[in-house]
Write a structure and sequence with these properties.
It is a single chain. 40% of the residues lie in helices and 14% in strands. The protein has 23 helices and 16 strands. A hairpin with a 6-residue loop joins strand 4 and strand 5. The structure holds iron/sulfur cluster. The site of iron/sulfur cluster (SF4) has 12 residues, from loops. The site of iron/sulfur cluster has 12 residues, from loops.
Amino acid sequence: MADRIFRVNMTDLTTSVEDVPEAWAGHGGRGLTSTIVAAEVIPTCHPLGANNKIVFAPGLLSGTVAANSGRLSIGAKSPLTGTIKEANAGGTAAALLARAGCKALIIEGLPKEDKWYSLALTPEGVTINEETELIGKGNFAVVEALSQRLDGKPGLITIGQAGEMKMSSANVSIKDPDGNLRSSGRGGLGAVMGSKKVKFISIDPKDGKVAIAKPEEFKAANRVFAKALVDHPVSQALGQYGTNVLVNIINESGGLPTRNFTQGQFAGHDSISGETMHDTIEQRGGKVKHNCHPGCVIQCSQVYNDLGGKKMTSGFEYESIWAMGADCCVDDLDKIAEADRIMDDIGVDTIETSVAMGVAMEAGVLPFGDGAGVCRILREEIGKGTGLGRIIGNGAGSVGRAFGVTRVPVVKNQAIPAYDPRAIKGIGITYATSTQGADHTMGYTIATNILNVGGKVDPLTKEGQVELSRNLQIATAAIDSTGMCLFIAFAALDDEKCLPALIDLLNARFDISLTGDDVVSLGKYILKTEKAFNTAAGFTAVDDRLPEFFYNEALPPHNVVFDFSGAEIDTFWDF
Ligand code: SF4
């Protein structure tokens, strides 16, 4: 069955299945969500209003056996940043959508009545059902209830209470093969889904399969590709220690933002490190290796148990642990895991919410290091939508404005993640110039600044940082179109067989003849499409800047500031 576009109009509660327009045919994942949002969403619209649309698109290789190809891209105009947004995550939904013949699902309009709905997607199309039982429930309760109601088989995309309340930190959760959650965290896309009053989407591809034009060539390319992934030392470290292997590495570099970005090292780093976490997981019978979707050969998505051996959280990532740990000065991994579970349940971005907590701590709302207080606020204030909960649930910028804090680490109102741009300057260029607000995944210069992957660019000097960020942002935009997990980038940068094998996979899947230059052109097209949307929405070069304190406050231990001029930052777009 040919891929098609599935469209849902929530205003008149109608659905349709459409042929794919020629201009969209070569796109998938982020390339497709950004193309559709740019084509169909009025850039100046209110993100929570009738003119915004939310788009779900599997990658070009999703649903195949290609290693690590199960990322789902979700796109819209962001209520947090006001820019175009794409956030991608693992889980089973991307593969199931692809197998259902769905190239993209577009949800548009707003319901006329104050009712909630769910969507059921099969190869025949989408059915809209009124939902009452699960409204007001957290993501874990939704997954558990639906595994019984729907016989456990379909893929699920859900929002928690934060999405229902349209908070700007609300994420969209995707069920993984074991009923755990993965999150499209950034930019408040859960609020857009909530504005359309869609609580969850189930996906049942029936016996649908993804067609491969040249199966033997596809299999051969996948063998080379998967081998390159498993052979790379960073992949092996991720499989052993999870992404949290980075705590000690970034702390050592002096770029671990601590105490609301006032220091670059955290005294309690050992207590929250990947090494400590690995030993704790082993002692308690958790899972050191776990894949967030079938076919992942890296398996970084660890399962963390409590003292009694019961699962607390999974996909317990470095950025979440850093944010609640070093940034909020909580040095208790169990407390951070508890906070992570609550955030997954109520459906908020762990980075945005934890950085917002750090700003709230600076404002005196609660003391630094108060992990119990964090959990109480998450449960009782954000989860229940109190006044304080809505201030924090709308992100770090919201807290800064409400309490008059001047050290607010955001770009385009999105919280800066786990790498201080004063001590790791390449990532500062990514934060400033990303089309989507501060986001390390848009151009992960840590690879080359810190991990010596793809060469070495000194993190403390300005030389080569703009070029590094530009090259990585272009490559990332293209990778985000394939459905590949970003962690393939380490092998792609270092192993000369990896990227050609990825291109071979695409060529065998579609019987085309893409070259490396085509992939670079695709990345450039995506960035320029996103940039044009933002310009039409009113963004200018002045928005591509870091907050003032990064230029004025020296960061210990290196005592460095972010020292790029506006003109230097703007050269990023010279391509
Ligand atoms: S490497 Fe980690 S994030 Fe990537 S697909 Fe595997 S488990 Fe998911």
